[in-house]
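Hey Z.,

So I finally got round to the fe (ii) ion thing we talked about over coffee. Here's the setup:
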Amino acid sequence: MLIPKKVEAALNAHLTLEMAALYHYLAVASWCDSKGYEGSASFYYKQSAEEQTHFMKFFNYINQVGGHAEVPELKKPTSTFKSILETCKKSLEAEQKVTQSVYKLLDIAAKEKDHATQAFLNYFVDEQLEEEMQFSRLISKIELIGSGPQALYYIDKEIEKLATAQAGANTK
Ligand SMILES: [Fe+2]
Ligand SMILES: [Fe+2]
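And the result:
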């Protein structure tokens, strides 16, 4: 089966966003690490690793369906943040961008009557919903806890719980 050219180009363009998400999470993890937010660092390192699996899923899919996956060019991501809350807000923004791109891909695949790519993309529709909900919940929780020095300790522990929950889900 040959992938329609327009779908191939759109999937290649999407690779940039998955890799940018990987870079973003890695930069956030490193910032958290350098500030001593260990729980958050471990959560964001896991997020980064997850983005690599997304990237490879798209990359391999393009080649599997007769296209040519190309390694994207990327800008250096923002590496300093004001607070953990800001890292969550920036992450939600990044995920929303990815979601919009997945929706656009679905529209293009539908227009090209490319049912295989639509089926491939369904996994990412669910995945994006989960990611956006995760950060929305986290932002509400942090806003509720507040931003004092003790609050930071609890926030870091809350985020660490997410990393542990993810590790559990990944072994299923
Ligand atoms: Fe992703
Ligand atoms: Fe993501």
